[in-house]
Design a protein that fits this description.
Length: 168
């Protein structure tokens, strides 16, 4: 069995919008020699999203995304990496126009999202590279009166992920 360590850099987009949530973390891949099949342990750091309008911070969100399953995948006959991971999202803090309206990590996805990841053909697992995917984000719960607004903006189809695997 072979192990490969990667730094993860990338972003999530929120429902086909220009909102990008940066991603940073690590991925440790465990693969059988020559099989093309692998599993991996994904760890992402807490991240934040901030939006300014006319010099004023109107949105400040701290987001924690955790893998709820190993990353499982393989290299197909064209050498494309095909993988999936189940993740949950937690809003640790939400500030609107400087006022904290949510804190403490109570607002979270009701269930996990399954995020498919894929590469272009001839992906070299040892060299890393870019992975992309599109997924449906489940509704959020636990955020009191803010929950319907969060769901309107973030839950549903059209969410995308772009990550670069950088050999560590």
């Amino acid at each position: 069995m072979s192990e490969i360590a990667f730094a993860v850099r990338g972003f999530l987009t929120v429902r086909r919008s220009s909102l990008r949530i940066p991603l940073r973390g690590s991925l440790f891949i465990h693969t059988g020699l020559g099989s093309g099949v692998f599993t991996g342990d994904l760890t992402l750091a807490q991240t934040s999203l901030r939006r300014m309008v006319l010099g004023f911070r109107v949105l400040d969100v701290a987001v924690r995304i955790t893998a709820e399953s190993p990353v499982v995948g393989h290299l197909d006959e064209a050498g494309r990496l095909v993988a999936a991971v189940a993740v949950n999202a937690v809003l640790d803090r939400l500030r609107l126009c400087g006022r904290t309206v949510l804190s403490g990590g109570r607002c979270h996805t009701a269930t996990h999202a399954v995020v498919p990841l894929g590469s272009r053909p001839d992906f070299d697992l040892a060299q890393g590279g870019r992975l992309t995917g599109s997924y449906h984000r489940p509704p959020f719960t636990g955020g009191s009166w803010v929950t319907p607004l969060v769901n309107l903006l973030a839950a549903g189809p059209g969410n995308a992920v772009v990550i670069d695997l950088i050999p560590a």
